[in-house]
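Hello, quick one for you while I still have it in my head. Could you read through the record and tell me how the tokens relate to the sequence? No rush at all, and the record is pasted right below.
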Amino acid sequence: MPDLKVFRFVFVCLLIGGGIGTAMAFDAAARLRAAEAPAEEKANEATPSSTHVEAGQFVVPLLEEGRTEAFLLAEITLELADKETAARHRADTSILRDIMLRHFFEAAEEGRVLPNKADPATLKNSLKRALNRELGTAAVTQVLFDRLLLQENVRR
């Protein structure tokens, strides 16, 4: 009879081991499905579903007589005419950023963004015109300032 006890013990161990192994396999499969779900959501986000392009943040020093008198901080989102154009510019924002930086530095040199002289509406419209002129189309329909800040660097 000792052989029967060993047989039962081995059989019970196999059942327990099989149950644990099955549970681990189901858990691993559930974790794999959960890990794949966000990747699918990210792939869906990559499709052009919006006409908005986040251009990023810009910091422009405002100089007066060779000294930095203030800083212009702007965070910009652009609304473009169609989804395809937005997807193209969303993939590579370097052209848009270059145009906007040049425009900000020109505005700073001309004194249009100095404290007490800056007008956000005028800056928005001139930036939109500059972007459409450089891109050669009316691609940009609206310039949205997520953040626009003038910070003085001197004490008065």
Observations:
- The first strand starts at residue 52 and ends at 64.
- The mean pLDDT is 80.
